[in-house]
Amino acid sequence: MSRTVTVKPFDYVIFGATGDLTMRKLLPGFYYRMLAGQVPEEARIIGTARSPLTRDAYQGRALEALKKFIKKEDFDDAKIQRFLKLVHYVSLDGSKPESDWNSLRALIPQDKADRVRVFYFATAPNLYGAIAKNLHDKKLAVGDARVVLEKPIGIDLASANDINDSVGQYFKEENIFRIDHYLGKETVQGVIALRFSNPMFEAVWSSDYIESVQITAAETVGVEGRAAYYDESGALRDMIQNHLLQVLALIGMEKPASMAADDVRDAKVAVLQGLKPFDSRTVASHAVRGQYVAGKMGSENVPGYLEELGKESQTETYVALCAEIDSPRWKNVPFFIRTAKRLEQKVSEVVITFKPTESRLFPTEAKRNVLAIRVQPDEGISWTFNAKNPVHNDFSLGQATMRVDFAQTFQTRYPDAYERLMLDAVRGDPILFIRRDEVEAAWTWLAPLMKAWADKATPMAHYKAGSWGPDEARDMLKRHHAQWHEDMSL
């Protein structure tokens, strides 16, 4: 995965260019890729939004974003100015055909056949179809033009199909890049390398040796300025349907036929389609939803979700699920998926617990081996295993942990996930993007659970801000003879 090869000259048009995502992630990501030598001087980054800004005014906003979101040691005036020369702006409402499309067309003329053209939709998903239609009608979505769709792709299967159908009228499936920034994280990509390039792990990656798998995305923040969006979405739609199910698919998939994009995505979709569906029994026993109440984050008192929201709500800020993959490889192995706001620690990780060794050789019992893959922060791997305790004269066992810090090991800055994904769309490489059937499989699996929660078939659990979540989630793991990673006595 080279980060030094310059891509072809491109025109990258961002709809929603004044929004938080563009300022926080996309523009800084392009800047870092320019520093790495990947962005050619001929490239154009064209922001579009309804705000009536001049190019100079928009470049000023871009400069402020770079000052805020890139590291101080990476801020170089000459390089910043070189980057800003790539940045253009057009005041445009992409959902309206009567908007100023001529100004955009003037920046990406038709006679530049050698240039890659990418349209990034960083807007509300309900606008995707209208923007795609206008790009087609205005003769801008021509040739091999690509479109990048930000999540969420719908709020359920029906709305996801509506979005995919509306965009699919004007862009071929191979030119639709549905972005999931978790797949852009190097540690998530590294799951494939860990599994299939190391004989030790490949040999034991099954129910013969693995007792359980945990996938966690925990946040310490509350809903902050996203309260309106979050209350419509909730933790299940915001994190599990896309990010964490993609991680589960990489952990659970069979070895793909090759590293070609469709071979990898075929392997992933087989996992998603193989998830055992929820029914009335498993909704109660295999799923927990919760909301945080007032508590303490460190020394700071913080309000509960309903206090932050200012109204009553049945939207969950915590979800823990027990998923099962219906395949010989994973027979009877629970996959525990968890995400939440206002937990004690910010961490995204995969924890694989191996079955204990049955041996009478040692005077003390061998504990379970645990492999922890840290997605963020402090990307790396830890392996906890049994070893002879050197303090004792007999063969008593203790546990040792080996830790690998990837940034230190490879002597590199760990790039933000968006950096690679944005330029993968320029390259036309879809391996880290989501295919339509993956979206459909994820929504199909979650549909019975969402209906049960909408019907209030199960009660809402509560947990204090600054804790590790509700007791009901610990009880769910106890029923499977398991513990959350933070509760393990390693």
UniProtKB/TrEMBL annotation:
Binding-site residues, NADP(+): R50, K151
E.C. designation(s): 1.1.1.49
Domain Glucose-6-phosphate dehydrogenase C-terminal intervals: 193-485
Residue stretches making up the Glucose-6-phosphate dehydrogenase NAD-binding domain: 13-189
Catalytic reaction(s) noted: D-glucose 6-phosphate + NADP(+) = 6-phospho-D-glucono-1,5-lactone + NADPH + H(+)
Presence of keyword NADP: yes
Entry annotation: catalytic residues: H243 (proton acceptor)
Enzyme class (EC, first level): oxidoreductase
Keywords per UniProt: Carbohydrate metabolism, Glucose metabolism, NADP, Oxidoreductase
InterPro entries from the UniProt entry: G6P_DH, G6P_DH_AS, G6P_DH_C, G6P_DH_NAD-bd, NAD(P)-bd_dom_sf
Residues noted as binding substrate in the record, renumbered to the chain: H181, K185, E219, D238, K341, K346
Annotated metabolic or biological route of this protein: Carbohydrate degradation; pentose phosphate pathway; D-ribulose 5-phosphate from D-glucose 6-phosphate (oxidative stage): step 1/3
Entry-linked NCBIfam families: zwf (TIGR00871)
Family that this chain belongs to: Belongs to the glucose-6-phosphate dehydrogenase family.
General function of this protein: Catalyzes the oxidation of glucose 6-phosphate to 6-phosphogluconolactone.
Protein name: Glucose-6-phosphate 1-dehydrogenase
